[in-house]
Amino acid sequence: MTDSDVLSVDPTAWVSPDARIHPSQRGTRIVIGAHTQVYDYVVIRAVGGTGDIVIGEHCYINPHCVLYSGSGIRFGDYVLIGPHCSIVPANHGIARTDEVIRKQGFMPSRGGVVIEDDVWLGAHCVVLDGTHIESGAVIAAGSVVSGRITGKAVWGGNPCRLIRPR
C-alpha cells in the first residue's frame, strides 16, 4: 500500500507546509477536496479506527485543529472549521479497572462524524463520535457537540443546544 492509495489531495487544494497529515498504515483513506485550504499546525491523522476522513470542496480548516479518523469523518462542501477545533470520532474503552485505559482498545463506534454543506464551527469546538451536523448550521465557539444538529440554526454550549434559527 502506498501513500497515494490512502491520501488524496486535490491539486487545487492548499495544505500549509506546517500542517501534519499522517496517512494510515491500515488502508484508511484521507481525501481533501478541490479548493479546500488546510492551515498551519492542523493535524489530520488516521488513528483510532478504520473510518475514512473525507473533506469536501471549498472547506477551510483553520490553525491548530485536530482531526483523527476514528469511526470516520465526512465533510460536505463549504465547511468552515474555526481554530483549535477537535473532531475525534473515537472513545477509549474504560470498563476494566484491572487494566490500564491505554490497553483497553476502543469502544464501539457511534457512527463517526458527518458535517453537511455550509456549516461553520466556531473556535475551540469539540465534535464527538456519532455527531451529524445538518447543512447551514452554525456552532458557537467552545461548544461540545454530539448527536443530531439540525440545519439552518445557531447552536452552542456544553452540551450543545439550539440557540435560534438562522
Q: What's the quick description here?
A:
The chain is mainly β. 2% of the residues lie in helices and 34% in strands.
CATH superfamily: Hexapeptide repeat proteins
Overall radius of gyration: 16 Å
What does the main sheet amount to?
8 strands, mixed
How many discrete structural domains? 1
Structural class computed from helices and strand pairing: mainly beta
Mean pLDDT across all amino acids: 93
What's the architecture, going by CATH?
Answer: 3 Solenoid
Question: Can you count the beta strands?
Answer: 21
The CATH topology label is UDP N-Acetylglucosamine Acyltransferase, domain 1
Low-confidence stretches: none
User: So what's the oligomer here?
Assistant: single chain
EC number: 2.3.1.191
GO molecular function, one term: UDP-3-O-[(3R)-3-hydroxyacyl]-glucosamine N-acyltransferase activity
Enzyme class: transferase
Protein name: UDP-3-O-(3-hydroxymyristoyl)glucosamine N-acyltransferase
What this model shows, in words?
This is UDP-3-O-(3-hydroxymyristoyl)glucosamine N-acyltransferase. Pfam families: Hexapep. It comes from Usitatibacter rugosus. By secondary structure, the chain is an all-beta fold. It has one domain (3-165): UDP N-Acetylglucosamine Acyltransferase, domain 1 (3 Solenoid), CATH 2.160.10.10. The chain contains one helix and 21 strands. It has one helix at residues 3-6, and strands spanning 7-9, 14-15, 20-22, 30-32, 37-38, 43-45, 53-55, 60-61, 66-68, 73-75, 80-81, 86-88, 113-115, 120-121, 126-128, 132-133, 138-139, 144-145, 148-149, 153-156, 161-165. A hairpin with a 4-residue loop joins β20 and β21. The radius of gyration is 16 Å and the shape is globular. The N and C termini lie far apart (45 Å).
